[in-house]
Structure formats: C-alpha cells, structure tokens
C-alpha cells in the first residue's frame, strides 16, 4: 500500500523518535478498496505533548481524546494516541479514556473490522480482526461483540447501514441481529448526528439501502416524521445533491411532512426549503409551452427547474409513469432546450428585471403598498407571455390600462 509522502513523513518522524506510528481506519479501508481516501488519520503510542514537541505546527483539536492535528504540506493530519475507552453511560461518548502502549487495544475499541486496520510507513498491514477478509467478502461486521459495540455508541447502528450503502456491502448476521434488538437505543442519539449519517447514506451509490432502516427497526427511532420516507434504485440516477435526494426520499409523504422531518433533524434551511420546493413541484404536471416554462422559471428559478427535470427524468412524479421512458426522455430534452434558450436570450423572469420600475409607476399615480405590488405582478405576467413586451412604451401603456381598470372596479379608488 502506497502512502502519501506527507503521511510517510509524519510516520517516519514519529518512528525515528522511538514511537510506533500507523495510518488507521477509513483511509486504510479505502486504500485497500482502491479508492482515494478523503483524509488520513494516524495513530501512535506517543502522547499528545510528545507529538506536539516533534512537529512545529500543530492544532489542539481533541486533547481530551488524545488527538493533535499536525499541519504539513498545506494539509492537516489528525494524530491520536492509542487509547482505551471507558464505559459509555450515555450511549454516545466514553465517560473516560486512558492511553495505552498497545496498538491492539486501540484497534479493539473500533466499530467495524473494515475500520480496524492499520498500516505502517513501510506499508505493513496490521489486521487483527479479519477486516481485509471482510472487505473481500463485502461484509460489515463489528469488532468483537456487536451488542457491546452498539451499546457503546448507538450511532454505530446507523453507520452500519451507511457503510452498507456506500460500499454496497451486506451486514453480517450477528451484527444485524444485535442492530435489530438494540434499535430503540438510536433514540438517544442527537438529531444532528443522525442527519449527518443519513445524508451520507442518501448521497451514496446505493441509497436504496435506506430500506434496511425499516427491516432493522431503526426507522421509527430516526425522527417522528421519518416513517414514510423511502428510496428505491431510481435515486441512484440522481446527482449527489442533498436536496434532490431528500426530495426523492419524500416521494410518499407530503411536502409539509418532509419539511417537518428536515426541521426535526436540524437540517440547514437551504436544503430543507429546496427539498420541499422540489417535492411540491414534482407532483405537478410539467409545462408544455414556452410561456409555461417561463412561468415555471419565474416561480422556482433556473436551478430548481433543472433539478426538477432530473427528478422527472429518474421517474419521479405520478403523471410521468405513463408514456414510457423514451417519450419521457424526449419531452424532458425539449424542456431543457427551452430553458437554455430562455436563459441565453435573457428573458425577464422577475419583477426586478422589468424595464419599468416602482418609482415610475408611482409617478403614474399608482399608490404605494398592495396596489403597486399588484401592478408590478400584472406587468411581469404580460412579459412572461411575450418577452418582447419588456420595454417602457408597452409597460407604461399596460400600467395605465391596469390603473384605469382598477379605478372602474373600485369606484375611482385604487386599493
């Protein structure tokens, strides 16, 4: 296994100083699978203060857990002292930790065998629990007693499903049995941590593995509004976009329920609002004419419309199930082309793009308040029907006609 030069430099410096040092965890797993690790975590028998003394630039990122971040080559590398975790009275975090000189003791505390491997600067693999074999078998298996691992941190149950989705692995029978029997413990985990794992699951290559949450009994413990959230193989056709995949997952529930779920899980507002918007739109008929496309774009914007077409293309939306894949694909291609033409022409889609502004309408005699807003919307509506109308002469005439119509309707007053 070939380690990055900076990783080898850190390991070598620790070893030269008389310490043991290894890359550990997910980076080893991903390297064996031929994937580029997102980051490299390192472990050593050196204490945090000894690590800090060896490297000129460090950050105290988790001294209470023995972690120091070494800054080298423009990157940060977490270096954690071998440790043994104490009891987990809250089912989330160890009550205490103690350092150990034993790599084996450190690896023994980890969640799954595939995450409990280490590799030295020379590429020597330390695999005490059969992680490499489990990778070859496509198996998610706990290190040691799965009941103990899941009681220590209930989030590990959700992590098992997430890894199954990311790697397209199966969960080993005893691990899955423990997971189902302890599923109620997930209720003790914070919603933020649940959302983080759920998001990784949804953005994986096999988001349909979300259904394991129901098989295992985890779904009712995720959040009050989670039951009803489902995914099938269509979701994998969508780009890895949070809002898109959450909208797909909410296909069987209402937009309001999806919004409540994402609020309960403490999702960021932008993701929540976009997912709700997409779920609302996906159950409506697609526009047919160029004018209807402009109205759609005016309502939800270019980006959301593009994402809506991706959902429709993947087969979401009830009316899109008829006519066959070929007809649906052809129709969506035409809508994409129309959207592109509208964007390239720069058609006015918003009030702020009108050639006539609020100040000019006030000068025409339209009062501030609801009447001004209503007039601007009427002008935009006319321009959405025919973009060439977006010039001052036409809009003045249209606004004047609108004003006269309002006076007639309201006995000379404009409301």
Automatic annotation (TrEMBL):
Boundaries of every tRNA nucleotidyltransferase/poly(A) polymerase RNA and SrmB- binding domain copy: 168-219
GO biological process per UniProt: tRNA processing
PROSITE patterns per UniProt: PROKAR_LIPOPROTEIN
CDD domains: NT_ClassII-CCAase
Key words of the record: Magnesium, Metal-binding, Nucleotide-binding, Nucleotidyltransferase, RNA-binding, Transferase, tRNA processing
InterPro entries on file: Bact_CCA-adding_enz_type3_sf, NT_sf, PolA_pol_head_dom, PolyA_RNA-bd
Domain annotation Poly A polymerase head: ranges: 21-141
Cofactor dependency: Mg(2+)
Coiled coil regions, renumbered to chain: none
Presence of the UniProt keyword Nucleotide-binding in the record: yes
A GO molecular-function annotation: nucleotide binding
KW Ligase (keyword) present: no
PANTHER family: CCA TRNA NUCLEOTIDYLTRANSFERASE 1, MITOCHONDRIAL (PTHR46173)
Family to which the UniProt record says this protein belongs: Belongs to the tRNA nucleotidyltransferase/poly(A) polymerase family.
Protein name as it appears in the record: CCA tRNA nucleotidyltransferase
């Amino acid at each position: 296994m070939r380690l990055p030069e900076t990783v080898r430099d850190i390991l070598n410096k620790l070893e030269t100083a008389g310490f043991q040092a290894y890359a550990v965890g997910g980076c080893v797993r991903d390297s064996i699978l031929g994937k580029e690790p997102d980051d490299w975590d390192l472990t050593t028998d050196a204490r945090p203060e000894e690590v800090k003394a060896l490297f000129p630039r460090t950050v105290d990122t988790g001294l209470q857990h023995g972690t120091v971040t070494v800054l080298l080559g423009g990157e940060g590398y977490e270096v954690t002292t071998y440790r043994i975790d104490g009891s987990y009275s809250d089912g989330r975090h160890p009550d205490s930790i103690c350092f150990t000189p034993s790599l084996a003791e450190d690896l023994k505390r980890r969640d799954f065998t595939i995450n409990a491997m280490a590799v030295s600067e020379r590429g020597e693999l330390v695999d005490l629990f059969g992680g490499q074999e489990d990778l070859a078998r496509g198996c998610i298996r706990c290190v040691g007693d799965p009941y103990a691992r899941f009681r220590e941190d209930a989030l590990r149950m959700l992590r098992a499903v997430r890894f199954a989705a990311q790697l397209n692995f199966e969960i080993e029978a005893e691990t899955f049995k423990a997971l189902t029997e302890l599923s109620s413990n997930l209720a003790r985990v914070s919603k933020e941590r649940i959302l983080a794992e759920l998001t990784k699951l949804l953005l994986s290559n096999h988001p349909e593995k979300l259904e394991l949450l129901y098989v295992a009994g985890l779904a009712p413990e995720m959040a009050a509004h989670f039951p009803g959230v489902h995914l099938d193989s269509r979701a994998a056709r969508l780009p890895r976009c949070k809002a898109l995949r959450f909208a797909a997952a909410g296909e069987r529930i209402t937009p309001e329920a999806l919004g409540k779920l994402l609020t309960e899980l403490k999702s960021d507002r932008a993701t929540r609002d976009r997912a709700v918007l997409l779920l609302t739109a996906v159950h409506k008929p697609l526009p047919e004419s160029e004018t209807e496309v402009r109205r759609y774009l005016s309502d939800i914007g270019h980006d959301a419309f593009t994402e809506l077409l991706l959902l429709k293309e993947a087969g979401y939306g009830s009316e899109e199930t008829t006519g066959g894949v070929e007809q649906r694909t052809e129709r969506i291609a035409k809508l994409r082309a129309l959207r592109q033409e509208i964007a390239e022409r720069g058609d006015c889609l918003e009030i702020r793009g009108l050639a006539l502004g609020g100040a000019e309408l006030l000068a025409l005699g339209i009062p501030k308040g609801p009447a001004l807003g209503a007039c601007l919307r009427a002008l935009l509506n006319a321009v959405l029907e025919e973009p060439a109308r977006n010039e001052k002469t036409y809009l003045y005439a249209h606004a004047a006609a609108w004003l006269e119509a309002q006076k007639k309707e309201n006995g000379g007053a404009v409301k």
